[in-house]
Amino acid sequence: MKFPTLALALLAAAPSALATEKLYIVTFSNETPNSEVVAARDHLARNGCKITHEYTLIKGFAATCPEATMADYQVSAQSNKYKPTVEEDQVVTIWNGGSS
């Protein structure tokens, strides 16, 4: 029995389709040259990430990436002179802990 070509293609694509993607915020210190920020952005875009926002008040960007891609990037970026701060995007709220 032969599998149809489409079925084989879907099976081959399944692992990448199951990869968990998350939204990350990548920021750099003010001393970081713009070329370093652009290089980081381009590197992630070439490796399966989607840049969702580029910040103007701070040096950085937001990107949706597979967890494995971002983990690999964080390890490789640690040897860089201008180390980025990478955080998973999350909701921030203000709560004083008191009763109302």
From TrEMBL:
<comment type="similarity">
    <text>Belongs to the protease inhibitor I9 family.</text>
</comment>
<feature type="signal peptide">
    <location>
        <begin position="1"/>
        <end position="19"/>
    </location>
</feature>
<dbReference type="GO" id="GO:0004866">
    <property type="term" value="F:endopeptidase inhibitor activity"/>
</dbReference>
<dbReference type="InterPro" id="IPR052471">
    <property type="entry name" value="PBI_I9"/>
</dbReference>
<protein>
    <submittedName>
        <fullName>Proteinase inhibitor, propeptide</fullName>
    </submittedName>
</protein>
<dbReference type="InterPro" id="IPR037045">
    <property type="entry name" value="S8pro/Inhibitor_I9_sf"/>
</dbReference>
<dbReference type="GO" id="GO:0042144">
    <property type="term" value="P:vacuole fusion, non-autophagic"/>
</dbReference>
<keyword id="KW-0732">Signal</keyword>
